[in-house]
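Team,

Forwarding the record for the chain on the shared tracking sheet. I've put the sequence and predicted structure together so nobody has to dig through attachments.
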Amino acid sequence: MEWYNLKQENLPLEQGDIIKDTKVIVSSYELLKGQTNEANVATHDVIILSQSCDLQHVGKTNWVMVARLLDVHELFPVLSNSAKSKINTIIKGYVPNYHMIECCKIQGHEFDQKIIDFREVFSVPIQYMMELASEKIDGIVTLNSPYKEHLSQAYARFFMRVGLPTNISLY
């Protein structure tokens, strides 16, 4: 089963759409405390986390929730045995803030395996995302089912974690 599909009609936006070169505002302590008026703007490849049903109805939301996509080599510059072991724990879903997606082999849209970092999530105006998507004349890569639902489930697992003050004693 193929992980990805190329959307020729880029709209409506959907959960699992991968939008390259997206500008996001990165907040800072200084900005929020009024010590500066300058916001940091970063450019990242992102994947849409918002539910498709929220994005397809005009006026239902003004914001799109996106997460940063990282190259495996950004987190693990050297693929040592230790790094491979850590990558395998991500693949198995044992590291809640990371989710891994397979490489894309669609001609003209190829990329290596990516790690989604749920700690780097941004709310971006839907109008900006729709305009950005419309500018992608070669189409947009999007996750196919069931990988799209697997992404949603991984994000939900990260978001709904509960830390207990004391665990049950192990046998």
